[in-house]
Design brief:
This protein is an alpha+beta fold and 101 residues long. The protein has a single domain (5-89), classed as Ribosomal protein L30/S12 (60s Ribosomal Protein L30, Chain: A, 2-Layer Sandwich). It is built from five helices and four strands. It is globular and about 25 Å long. The relative contact order is 0.30.
Length: 101
């Protein structure tokens, strides 16, 4: 990827519309509302498989964050573990344009 994923996630957390958590990510992918899903590296395998399945049905891109949920949560300014982020609007981030290239 030709972009800084940490910086793009911070921009999404600050300016975009997003939800945190596996349950919300599953709901957003089932309904096809999410434009992007970001998963932490240590996301549980069965939950990851469900999200990947629904993302493939709805053509929603998935980005794997190469660190654990603690670091993803800290990056987003949260004080807890964040295993998944469902992005509805990227705000000022250019991550979707970079993924299409």
């Amino acid at each position: 990827m030709s972009f800084d994923l940490n910086r793009e996630i911070q921009i999404i957390a600050r300016t975009g519309k997003r939800d945190y958590g596996i349950k919300r990510a599953l709901k957003a992918t089932k309904l096809g509302r999410a434009k992007l899903v970001i998963l932490a590296k240590n996301c549980m395998a069965d939950e990851r498989a469900q999200i990947e399945y629904y993302c493939s049905l709805a053509n929603i891109p998935i980005v794997e964050y190469n660190n654990n949920g603690y670091e993803l949560g800290a990056l987003c300014g949260r004080e807890h573990v964040v295993s998944a982020i469902s992005v509805y609007d990227t705000g000022d981030s250019k991550i979707l344009k970079a993924l299409k290239k």
